[in-house]
């Protein structure tokens, strides 16, 4: 069956067929075709137009206790979506409304409306609700400002510098008067971070002498390290951390496909020793658990910055559900350039 | 030369003769005898009556960059002292005044008064200024309350539970309505923590099944872990940490004598993964750098608690400078029982 096209009568969904060992591959996913569900009184029928792909989804594919339940085998992959209301039996929504939902990797879903957020009709692009004005934006804003507490003149380092979160972290840090060093995975991404996003420097983490390069540009050490990556990037950051450095711990994408711990020596005590001696604060956070109550504050600030062109935002748009799995596998390898979003269907399905 | 007695005409000092590799031994120290110095105008001559021995001193013996400069070879070992003013050529001090100083492992020192804190004459014992009302007290108070932020009904775990800091952490946590679990190094210490200090439980870290014991008593997980120890104790604490747990990182005494990192696997990413997934805050602090401006707040609270007998405080008093090195070596092995203080001389030297 051709799954490339969204239609009115078929609900395509991508389910978790087997749990990955290491990097996921196409065999871990299965496409199902079903009749779209019918809403009951009080419900709406959602049609997904945009689907967000994010690194956290890799964790949900594992059968391990985490901050969220794992996806069960046979269940639809989870994810935030921007949807249109196709049918409304709920007084709070009208057909044609744009909403932010969490309906996963599929075309159609039902909702009682409680888990939906209306998207203002004047938004330049409804898909921005999945990025700069959504979860990644709130993550960047709160992680940097609330945990990182950057001060004017301090040095902020952010890895995955052109990703959905990292690109916003660096730009917000520049707005706060910091020196910003990005780390990214290609020369093209580094040039973009400096030329377009206004970072002071951006280093390619694939270069041989990353540690020396980072030391050269961080002339006053590192005050805030926004951690998206872990692994080798953290190794080169750690020695340069200043006393009282802050580390908002947002993600560890380099570790998500790991099947075992690296070989020794065991550096856990080394990390704790550094945290002690340098009086470092390292803090993990999950944006919707910790900060959803501050969404309005963030949304106002970010909307203003966007309207003043103080923040730039790049989407990496993929067309069609049939490219979703490959795009997700590529995301974990850093192949995307900007916020990864899949367009599942047209704005209006006739 | 007999060094056992403090006299008016000889300044005994213990200097760092060589840097330890691993655990310090007596060969690392050298005793010197010199004429006591003579104060100039504006200075006072201090005579040390009590010397505090603390784990941080081990770090200062290494030639590695840390939050404080290493002690140079040939220099007197550093340390907080409670002194009497023997001669005053400074208008702010009178002969016979008790002061808190940082004059190190020796009998006599000069000061211009700026680094001295007067000890109130009504203090039950002037040596309390080295413990419950001094650096260890401030460390326990600020680390627990400012970084740990314990809430009524939460579970607080503290290792080195009968030590200078740990015993106060647990008692303050009880005053805040928490369930308190101590970890200590002998059955006698554990009994003291429960029977005298009022901890809910105290476990012997030398027992074989510490992990299972801890899991049994922490029925609701661990919300605050006050870290004094590191190593094996942290290993058993880590899996029991609750979401949003806080870890004030105050010391890592189990690591201070380590000469190399433990064998692998490398668990650094495991620790960071736990901090991320559980949204943990781990924060190092150095009490005088971070909290000296809040000493008065602490002092008022602690003085009140002591006067109301809500806080108990135990000193492990050693007699004489000639027992100092052995006492310090024993401190790093957990042989002390209570705050370790050396009495160098009598209250009044005639």
From TrEMBL, chains A, B:
Q: Where is this region: Disordered?
A: 1-21
Q: Which Pfam families match?
A: ADH_N_2, ADH_zinc_N
Q: Name one GO molecular function term.
A: oxidoreductase activity, acting on the CH-CH group of donors, NAD or NADP as acceptor
- Whether S-adenosyl-L-methionine counts among this entry's keywords is no
UniProt entry keywords in alphabetical sequence: Oxidoreductase
The biased composition feature labelled Polar residues covers: 1-16
Domain called Enoyl reductase (ER): residue spans: 22-342
SUPFAM superfamilies in UniProt: GroES-like (SSF50129), NAD(P)-binding Rossmann-fold domains (SSF51735)
> Where are its TM segments located?
none
Q: Does the keyword Oxidoreductase apply?
A: yes
InterPro entries tied to this protein: ADH-like_C, ADH_N_2, ER, GroES-like_sf, MDR_fam, NAD(P)-bd_dom_sf
This chain's protein is named Enoyl reductase (ER) domain-containing protein
Provide the species name: Pseudoalteromonas denitrificans DSM 6059
Q: What is the lineage of its organism?
A: Bacteria, Pseudomonadati, Pseudomonadota, Gammaproteobacteria, Alteromonadales
